[in-house]
Design goal:
Chain A: Keywords: Oxidoreductase. The structure holds 2 protein chains of 2 kinds. Chain A is an alpha/beta fold. Chain A contains 11 helices and 22 strands. Chain A folds into 2 domains: 4-44 and 146-216 and 333-387, FAD/NAD(P)-binding domain, CATH 3.50.50.60; 84-138 and 217-329, 2-Layer Sandwich (D-Amino Acid Oxidase, Chain A, domain 2), CATH 3.30.9.10. Chain B is an alpha/beta fold. Chain B has a single domain (2-245), classed as HUPs (Rossmann fold). In chain B, α2 (68-78) links the parallel β4 (57-64) and β5. In chain B, α2 (68-78) crosses α5 (188-194) and α3 crosses α4. The chains are: A alpha/beta, B alpha/beta.
């Protein structure tokens, strides 16, 4: 059954950014519609490791993380204040120390610098050889990405946002440089002058129909999952990020530990050889959504080997099936967020490059404010123009 | 005592299966494969019996293509001692598999064969029973508990009415149900050790078994899609629909 809707603001997508936008807009006494292809958090959001920290070399990302974590912590049961320990060796020490000072003194977020010995006390089952400095965020941690996103969407709906699930936007209409509405996959139309595309990996294909070449691409990244029945929190009480072996890990409940690896961008990497390996392992996905979500034993082992030098105890646990997700990448690993040139009122949130979950709620909020005419200075760092 | 555990390579339980366009079979090209989950439970039970000192050696066997080697390596990584791949590219059926297994049993002389109660690809639930018949051995199917005592095996079976405990004279056949145990996950060091454990390659002919298919698949279809729901305006309308459309009242 096709319908004709109209609204003040349309939010496309119910990942964490779209959920954040809808949640903010629901408090603005406006007529708001949110469209989602599947269900909230069904895309990359739901398979995020959802480690939430302020530590970013880029100030805008730190500030968005600060606001994002604030929003996430307000959702009952979604946030686990496990703490995040971010360690580095001599090579990154000066930069990381300055970053901690900036985040603590200028941005006012809760973070402190520790020595390797102090880090050892927090994570006794991690070998801190060569760790000279660690950023410690005792009130940060990790989140249930699925629960948090659904709670934001639920609150938005409760406050009047109309949620259209099981439908996607197939066409965006622009007339004389002004966005006028969209057509949905079921043939329905929505008339609106403000559209927020919180469509992440799906944005590029959608915008290409308007002749816009969004500077983003998709990579398949994956996580190893370790079986640690009853001992996950004993072995790893806090989230652990390691600049020296490009590795991160966090407890998941009492029985499981997640391990990931990263190749750099937005944060620092010490091991160039490992970083180059990442481009081979995290191969590109041509069509959003068309990738293998399961991972091979070799892929699990590749991830686990990043943790082996630091914690054989964890790396030698039983290996559960891991999983892959899509990373919405930009060339400089910083998000691409902008009002599309030549389409007034059309905003896009994409290119989150693996930082998307923790900054998502704040990104959605900022872009929603921007769409309502409030200038967002922070968003200037994410402009498409930087690639021109 | 030796324990023999047959394992089958099937489509990974986490993969959404698709039927080939021509309806001849399930699409297997570029699909992730894994050990049949019931067979994992069988392997785990054998390992626990060995850890409890009730068995000395666990032999895993798979009848299938070359890639079934990966499934055997998984079992070896969990803790089995050695593996036999009976290589065939034929689409195997329970009777053919049971005949090969009889040959393996005659050669290896295990005191116990533990199998998954069925494979999640064809859901036949026949191989264990056929093997018991071919060997003339006792069988305890759908096991949720196995206790060995001398030359007796006490097997608790999950039957429709509840639980039934049978006492089998060994050697015997046990087929594993879902609640028998929670299989362990292989660790990295054990995966590495498994690469060095012995894996023999045989053919069905080595055991004098004929595995040619006897069944003909006429058609393979996906389940029909779920119809969209409707909102009813009143309880009366709901009752009417349940009565006249759904036919459940």
């Amino acid at each position: 059954m096709t319908e004709k809707y109209s609204c003040d603001v349309l939010v496309v997508g119910a990942g964490i950014a779209g959920a954040g936008a809808a949640y903010y807009l629901s408090g603005q006494k406006l007529n708001v519609i949110q469209v989602e292809t599947d269900h909230p958090a069904s895309g990359p959001t739901g398979s995020s490791s959802a480690v939430c920290h302020y530590f970013y070399l880029d100030r805008p990302l730190s500030l968005l993380a600060k606001r994002g974590i604030e929003i996430l912590k307000d959702l009952p049961g979604a946030f686990d204040q496990s703490g995040v320990l971010w360690a580095c060796g001599q090579k990154n020490e000066a930069v990381n120390r300055a970053t901690v000072e900036r985040i603590r003194d200028v941005e006012g977020s809760r973070i402190e610098g520790l020595t390797g010995a102090q880090a050892s006390e927090l994570l006794p089952h991690i070998n801190m050889d060569g760790i000279t400095f660690a950023a410690w965020e005792d009130e940060s941690g990790h989140c249930d990405p699925y629960g948090a996103t659904n709670e934001l969407v639920r609150r938005a709906r409760e406050s009047g946002v109309k949620f259209l699930g099981g439908r996607s936007v197939t066409e965006i209409h622009v007339a004389n440089g002004q966005t006028t509405g969209v057509t949905l996959s079921d043939g329905s139309t929505i008339t609106t002058e403000r559209v927020i595309l919180a469509t992440g990996v799906w944005s590029k294909a959608l915008l290409s129909k308007l002749g816009v070449n969004l500077p983003v691409y998709i990579e398949r990244h994956f996580m190893a999952v370790m079986s640690a029945p009853g001992i996950a929190r004993k072995l790893l009480p806090h989230c652990w990020v390691d600049d020296t072996y490009n590795c991160y890990a966090r407890p998941e409940g009492e029985n499981t530990i997640l391990i990931g690896a990263w190749g750099g961008g937005g944060t620092s990497v010490e091991n160039e050889a490992l970083a180059s390996d990442h481009h081979k392992m995290n191969y590109r996905v041509d069509v959003a959504g068309q990738f293998d979500r399961t991972i091979t034993q070799e892929e699990s082992i590749w991830i686990i080997n990043h943790l082996m030098p630091r914690s054989p105890e964890i790396a030698e646990l039983g290996i559960r099936p891991g999983y892959a997700c899509q990373y919405d990448m930009s060339a400089d690993h910083v998000p691409v967020v902008d009002e599309i040139p030549g389409a007034k009122g059309l905003f896009v949130i994409a290119g989150s490059s693996g930082h998307g979950f923790k900054i998502g709620p704040a990104m959605g909020e900022s872009v929603a404010k921007w769409a309502l005419g409030e200038r967002q200075e922070l968003m200037e760092a994410f402009s498409m123009a930087r690639f021109a | 005592m030796k324990i023999l555990v047959p394992v089958k390579r099937v489509v990974d339980a986490n993969v959404k299966v698709r039927v080939k366009a021509d309806g001849s079979a399930v699409e297997l090209a570029n699909v992730k494969m894994a050990m049949n989950p019931f067979d994992e439970i069988a392997v785990e039970e054998a390992i626990r019996l060995k850890e409890a000192g009730k068995a000395e050696e666990i032999i895993v066997v798979s009848i299938g293509p070359q890639q079934a080697q990966e499934t055997l390596r998984t079992a070896l990584a969990m803790g089995a001692d050695r593996a036999i791949l009976v290589k065939t590219d034929e689409q195997t059926e329970p009777l053919g598999v049971a005949k090969v297994l009889k040959g393996v049993v005659d050669a290896e002389r295990p005191g116990l064969v533990i199998l998954g109660k069925q494979a999640i690809d064809d859901d036949s639930n026949q191989t264990g029973q056929m093997l018991a018949a071919l060997l003339g051995w006792a069988q305890g199917t759908f096991a949720s508990k196995v206790v060995l005592d001398g030359d007796k095996a006490k097997v608790t079976r999950e039957v429709d009415g509840g639980l039934q405990t049978v006492e089998l004279k060994m050697p015997a056949i046990v087929t594993a149900d879902l609640r028998l145990n929670q299989p362990r996950y292989a660790s990295l060091p054990n995966i590495m050790k498994a690469k060095k454990k012995p894996l023999d390659e045989k053919s069905p002919a080595d055991y004098g078994a004929d595995v040619k298919p006897r069944l003909k698949v006429i058609k393979t279809e996906e389940p029909s899609g779920r119809k969209a729901g409707v909102k009813v305006k009143s309880v009366a309308e709901l009752v009417d629909k349940l009565k006249n459309e759904a036919g459940v009242l």
